[in-house]
Write a structure and sequence with these properties.
Helix content: 25-40%
CATH class: Alpha Beta
Bound molecules: D-malate
Shape: globular
Strand order of the largest sheet: 5-4-6-3-11-10
Strand content: 15-25%
Structural class: alpha/beta
Radius of gyration: 16 Å
């Protein structure tokens, strides 16, 4: 089986994809489902999200790391972890993560959301679903490869290589080399451009939360996409 890491979302995924935006969209998405959200709806824009505001939705997301005006919540996993969302749809829109998930959902058979928080569970689920290829898609930072997502892809590759034989692409080799060089995730997450931006906004605690490995067995899984909105549920 092929194990491919794309340092940025390219599109054209024939089989199973794990989308990664460890700081913070895929970590926060996992936390919303841990706190009983019925489903996550990844919108295509801030306007679409605001149009979806209702008593049955929680509208969350960020620009520049901070909550968008009119949204109920920002994109902090710690903030998300303070509530319970039973009976609610959480509508998310962020700079990089929700975009990458929408790109993957255009072609892939299976799309999972992966982060350090659910790394082992996401790797196990991808291995159980894939037939020919597992693609780990890093969201990056505004069109540029990011240290934090690439490192997280390395952790996922490490788990997968313990589960079976794979043919690796260069992206996977880069991610694995990084992971094998640096054992503690705090360093690559904090020194990434996304991490430094969060720290500068007083959101350093989110980085330390996102750096905790395999504490959750929740794997947000693509249920489908309707009217351009991509839906994830707890898988
Ligand atoms: C993103 O999608 O760009 C990130 O999740 C942004 C953030 O959380 O600050």
């Amino acid at each position: 089986m092929r194990l491919r890491v794309d340092l940025l979302p390219h599109g054209e995924y024939p089989d199973t994809v794990i989308v990664v935006d460890v700081l913070r969209a895929t970590t926060t998405a996992t936390v919303f489902l841990e706190h009983h959200a019925d489903r996550l709806l990844f919108s295509g824009s801030i306007e679409e999200s605001l149009d979806l505001k209702s008593e049955n939705t929680i509208v969350a997301g960020e620009r520049g790391g901070l909550a968008v005006a009119g949204f109920d919540l920002g994109n902090s996993p710690i903030e998300a972890g303070t509530g319970s969302y039973a009976g609610k749809t959480v509508v998310m829109n962020t700079t990089n993560g929700t975009y990458a998930a929408r790109v993957a959902s255009e072609s892939a058979k299976h799309v999972l959301l992966g982060a350090l928080r659910n790394a082992h569970a996401a790797a196990r689920k991808a291995k159980s679903l894939a037939v020919e290829e597992i693609a780990i898609v890093c969201s990056g930072e505004r069109g540029r490869a990011s240290l934090d997502d690439t490192y997280t892809a390395g952790v996922l590759c490490e788990y997968l290589l313990a589960m079976g034989e794979f043919t690796l692409n260069d992206g996977a080799r880069i991610a694995l080399t990084l992971r094998r060089q640096v054992g503690d995730p705090i360093e690559p997450l904090s020194s990434s451009s996304g991490g430094m931006s969060l720290e500068s906004k007083g959101l350093g605690e989110d980085i330390r939360f996102c750096a905790r490995i395999s504490e959750s067995t929740i794997v947000p899984t693509l249920q489908g996409s309707t009217d351009g909105q991509v839906i994830f549920v707890s898988g």
